[in-house]
Amino acid sequence: MNRICSAGSLLIIVVMLSVRLCAQGPPHLLGFTSASSARESAAEARLKSVPQPAEERRQHRVFTAEPHTAGSKRNNELADYIADEWRKQGLESVTIRRYDVYGTNPKSASLEMVAPVHYEATLREVPLAIDPDTKNPAISGAWLGMSISGEVTAPVVYAHSGNPEDYDLLRKNGISVKGKIVLVRYSNPYSYRGFKALTAQREGAAAILIYSDPAEDGYKKGTVDPNGPWGPEYHIQRGAITYDFMVPGDPLTPGWASVPGAKRIPVEEAVSVPKIMALPLSWHDAKPLLENMDGPLAPADWQGGLPIQYHLGGERVKVHLKIEIENGTQPYYVVEGRIRGTELPDEWVVLGNHRDAWVFGGVDPSSGTASMMEMTRALSTLAREGMRPRRTIVVCSWDGEEVGLTGSTEWGEQFADTLRAKAVAYINVDEATSGSNFHGQAVGSLAPMLVETTRTLRDPSGRSLYDAWRLSVEHERAEAKRSAPVTDADLADTRIGSGSDHTVFLNFVGMPVIGLGFEGDYGVYHSAYDDFFWMNRFGDPGYRYHTLMSQLWGVTTLRLANADLLPFDFASYASNLRQFVNDLAKANEKNIWGQPPSAVQPGEARQPQLDLKPIRSEIDAFEAAGRALNKSLSRTLASGKVDPELAARVNHGMMQVERNWLNPDGLPGRPWFKHILYGARFTYAHLELPGLTEAVEKQDWATARQQAAILEHALETNTKLLQDLNSELPR
After folding, report:
1. CB-based contacts of 105: which residues, under 8 Å, 6+ apart?
2. If you compute the radius of gyration of the chain from its CA atoms, what whole number of angstroms results?
3. I need a labelling partner for 550 at 20 to 30 A (CA). Which of 304, 307, 427, 568 fits?
């Protein structure tokens, strides 16, 4: 059989398939008329046929061949490679944008225990005989981006996970960390290393050492690399400690783009720049410190996976630490390409993945980068064959994500006004795959569309992606001993924190976002062992999930780029908001009510510090308006006729909803973050209703009432907007 077809014959095949689908009467896709659904299904079928596992693997090898930290020569070469590949694929307006940012590079580090015994830390990862990439001389030693340089000799204190409550326990045991070096674990419970550094800095510590305990990502979890996916004895989790939970992006240009010649603030005024020495350790290098510590025995939940008793320390173990880091302004490069829309070129669907890695980035981010390259090849193939999207697709390769979400933040700040006028949504893929369990994130208005999209894709297990996703969520619930049945509303994760490139688009620009990824056992994060070998042996042998990610990413993009009426569901969003408020009330019941019901005198009404009834009432009205709009949209699409001018007005109105959740003044204390529904804690963990929640948790009732009023006003504004849009649609 001849496997080569001309573009013309392929177009004929697609048209025939479209006609056949129309005759069969396919179900309406969200946002599409019947005829448009048939055309869309045909285009999606063609797109899914393009990505190939062999090409995914080839691209993955390109990106994992050498270490490529942000700002490095290799990472800049990869920017040129992506631009050249996109031009060959047929993407238009391919551009490399330069941002001069405050970056970070390692020079040297040493750690030596000087008492009670001598030990010199290796601060290196031992190569694996079976994995040739681990022998690469370009692999760095241990370092944490944005650490300060310095030298100190001081006692070591074990501070568990390095969260504020851990220091409270140390104080109860009579242990101060002022002027000392704290040794903390990466997890248990999880918190971003930058928050650990800030907490240690606030406590007056001279330095912080962060190590990977085998209880979290090593042999206590299962078999370690090279025989299993978990972290071996010498693995070191690099990373940055930037305080980007305060202000992400270039620390010297907070809120505006760091283009060449931009105004810059002094580094001393930059709130996201740490002022503490920091270094990561393998458990191999942490064990000699822990086993020689004196002081009280650490609590049971502070004990780790090493075969020793963990003590709090404080005086007996002393170390000499020296760190030299080169922090200064350097260029980062964002690669941008487009496929111009045929009918609505000034409506954009934006896609992105970051390119920079701490070493090879087998999972993070190169699995996502390889999937992106096959996804763009598929989209450009459709364009060449006459199936261009209705809306413009903008694709970006970000730089400096690992340092402070830098490239995406600078690009988003540079084009914020344009994006607020034109952008439909942003779809982020950071790590495409470390396993087979799908995790999909979306703002509440796009969650139903994402769920619907997964029904049309085939998982490597043989099931539909939808069925595989549902089974994965059911398994998670069973492990958590939650017996409630799983519904479609439970699938998409609508609680979105920070820590990846979606942050600027959601929290600063006000764009709806979607995040896609497949997850599995993964204990080599940010280490030299996260490489091509690990992916081929454990993460995705055969590159089937890379391929599925390219398909899913491409199909999700087409749903947004081709819809007649954008597939937002604001009734679904309202349901999420109601849950956010209920969770806030439940978690802070004592604070809000101030006294238990038993303390109220007979005949007296129990008065809350904060009345949430007005917010709940506004949510009810927003939900009702969303349901009415859903019915009108469905009726219009079912008619088969959508007036272009009407569609433009309705679509732009729906795009405005997410913008209306922005507060121009930002969150109290963190004005860069402007979204009133979505935010992140300093740990990167999701934080819903951030301004309101933080005020309630602090029992700052004046601020809480102010934030509640802001939320009520935004709900009222969006309810009125939905009602106005509904009135424009035919009855």
Report:
1. 69, 71, 325, 326, 327, 330
2. 26
3. 568
